[in-house]
């Protein structure tokens, strides 16, 4: 029990010694995330175009249904990844703007 308390105290002390994040950190994270959003947007579009041009052509109805479901899953996940990076980039940009408006106490 005493080791756990010492570990928690050491973690708190280490966190207090770390400097706060500044506006440069926020804008660099935002630009990186927005760049990744743009990059994955083009990849997602290419994936959607590829799957729309190459339709599953199997004789079995079950195999064709599973193939279509997997294609839809891949397209959906790729656009979800794109949205996630865009949303994170927008959020970090808002925090960047907010860092100039809020005064530290």
Layout of SSEs?
Blueprint: H1 2-17, H2 23-53, H3 61-101
Short description:
The chain has helices spanning 2-17, 23-53, 61-101.
Mean pLDDT: 87
Q: Tell me the span between the first and last alpha carbons.
A: 36 Å
Query: What structural class results from the helix and strand content?
Result: mainly alpha
The fraction of residues assigned to DSSP E strands is under 5%
The count of β-strands is 0
Nearest-angstrom radius of gyration?
23 Å
**3D shape:** elongated
Give me the strand/helix succession. Answer: HHH
Q: Count of DSSP helices?
A: 3
* Uncertain regions spanning at least 5 consecutive residues: none
Q: Report helical residue fraction.
A: over 70%
The main pleated sheet reads as: none
Describe this entry's structure for a reader.
By secondary structure, the chain is mostly helical. The protein has a domain of 70 residues. The protein is 84% helix and 0% strand. It is built from three helices and no strands. Helix 2 runs antiparallel to helix 3. It starts with a helix and ends with a helix.
Supply the key terms.
105 residues
């Amino acid at each position: 029990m005493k080791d756990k308390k010492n570990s928690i105290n050491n973690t708190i002390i280490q966190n207090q010694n770390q400097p706060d994040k500044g506006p440069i950190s926020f804008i660099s994270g935002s630009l990186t995330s927005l760049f990744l959003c743009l990059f994955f947007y083009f990849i997602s579009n290419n994936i959607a175009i590829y799957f729309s041009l190459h339709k599953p052509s199997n004789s079995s109805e079950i195999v064709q249904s599973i193939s279509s479901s997997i294609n839809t899953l891949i397209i959906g996940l790729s656009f979800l990844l794109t949205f996630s990076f865009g949303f994170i980039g927008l959020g970090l940009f808002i925090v960047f703007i907010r860092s100039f408006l809020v005064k530290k106490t």
